[in-house]
Amino acid sequence: MDATPLLLLVAASAAVAGAARRTSVPPPLVLVAVGLAASFLPGVPEYRLDPDVVLPLVLPPLLHVAALDSSYLDLRAQVRHVLLLSVGYVLFSTVVVGWVLYAVVPGMPLTAALALGAIVAPPDAVAATAVARRIGLPAKITTILKGESLFNDATSITAYKVALAATVGEGATWAGGLAEFAIAAVGGVGVGLVLMGPLQWLRTRLRDPLLLNTVSLLIPFVAYAVAEEVHASGVLAVVVVGLHLGHRAWQVDFATRLQEAAVWRMAAFLLESSVFALIGLQLRVVLRDVGDYEPGEVAVYAVAVFLAVVAGRFAWVYATVYLPGLRDRGGRPPWKYPFVVSWAGMRGVVSLAIAFAIPMTVDDGKPFPGRNLLLFLTFTTVIGTLVVQGLTLTPLIKVLGVPGSDSYRQTLMEAQAQNEASRAAEQRLEELLADPRNALPQPLADRLRSVLERRRNAVWERLGTVNEVTGESADETYRRLTREVIAVERESFVRQRDERRIDDEMLRTLLRRLDLEEAAALYQEDALQ
Fold first, then answer.
1. pTM greater than the 0.85 cutoff
2. Within a 13 Å sphere around the CA of 312, how many CA atoms are in the beta-carbon half?
3. What is the pLDDT of residue 227?
4. Neighbouring-strand partners of residue 473
5. Distance in angstroms (rounded) separating the CA atoms of residues 88 and 213
6. Distance CA 95, CA 180 (A)
7. How many Å apart are CA 267 and CA 61, to the nearest integer?
8. What's the pLDDT tens digit per position in 17-44?
9. Using CB atoms within 10 A of its CB, is residue 58 exposed (0-12), middle (13-18) or buried (19+)?
10. What b/e readout covers 352-370, taking b as 16+ CB neighbours within 10 angstroms?
11. 31: closest CA among 44, 16, 52, 46?
12. What is the pLDDT of residues 147-178, one digit of tens each?
């Protein structure tokens, strides 16, 4: 098997994503655009999304990363909205899109149309996370969008299986489909609940960070495979395990947390970049397969499905927010908030992967009705939502005046929390130093005290005045100077190694110590920015 095309895809996607991060355009949109253009370049291999690869090998780690980065407590507080979107909206959208397609395409069976509705119903977890991270939406909206995208794939896949079985002649019923969904959902959650305890126990017992991070990388694949093996929802199993491990991450050794965060950031970056590039690269495939239809006809069908997807989401979100009997007891939010939630429904790679899984024939050997058209409409819907909604979401939020995350309030909360923790640590330190068994030379004891004081004051300094000359806060100046003096030390160590006054092993030891000190001093900076 030639691995060159795959390596080229990953390398090119990472390069494009890295360049896109220097622009104001969200990297997923740049990757999709580049993929669209590259799909027609001579010599570019044909990349066809394989559902047997995407669903068990690509989807679990992406869901796991999103779950680790989510808040179990915040999701629990917004569980009503999350369930209404991840279950209710997906089923509603399946019916709306299915009926629209059935009405506009002559000869299209209703069951096949409903299969498309289920395919394009779920907004994408990767897209939602990327949007929330890039724009800095209010915390409640971010929680709802991320929570929806974590759970909606399970509903969509089950609805698709029921519609598909009815189309190919397996005698499926919607009552049976609801029972299948209930079994899959309960089973998936059950598998996650069973696995999360032993996995967390293992994570807290292993002391080798390398081994523990290897286990961490295997966790989403194991959870997904075990659940699917017992005909439960692998998606829900992965999400439940990820939420629990993220909620209990503080119980793991600090070295493991640091390495694990770095490993998963790299894995998520490579997977997300490759996934969005793959979406664009499907253009050549779907255009070739839809050649039996007139361009004008398929354009009308594509617009109809896109409008049904967008309008259906607005209808569902506003109905559940404002209609009596459905709205939240907490009162009506400003109309701008549900507008943003409605417009932030980008579709992604899961929809395309499911569409490619549509069988070529039905039970009697005849071609699956409208398969190539369904694949094309899935592609246009995914591209349409990513481009139209993805490009306009940021300007829309600015026009509507939706407030972003309150950085000052977040910093103030951080400072208050750090102040309380530092005072508790200082009290414990004095108790320890008073014990003769913990006797330390005065300089070392003072250093411990100064570290705690510095940690407490650092966050408050971010709220302080700005340097009139540089425009930096005191904390920013401190971090900049820290980087510069550490860089001088690092260069000195390298020079001593080159002059053979120290060997390479000692150099690595000294550099690692500097790296840890620099990381501790600069912990406020987000490595993803």
1. no
2. 27
3. 95
4. 466
5. 37
6. 18
7. 8
8. 989 888 877 788 899 999 999 988 888 8
9. buried
10. bbbbbbbeeebeeeeebbb
11. 16
12. 998 899 889 988 898 888 888 766 556 667 77
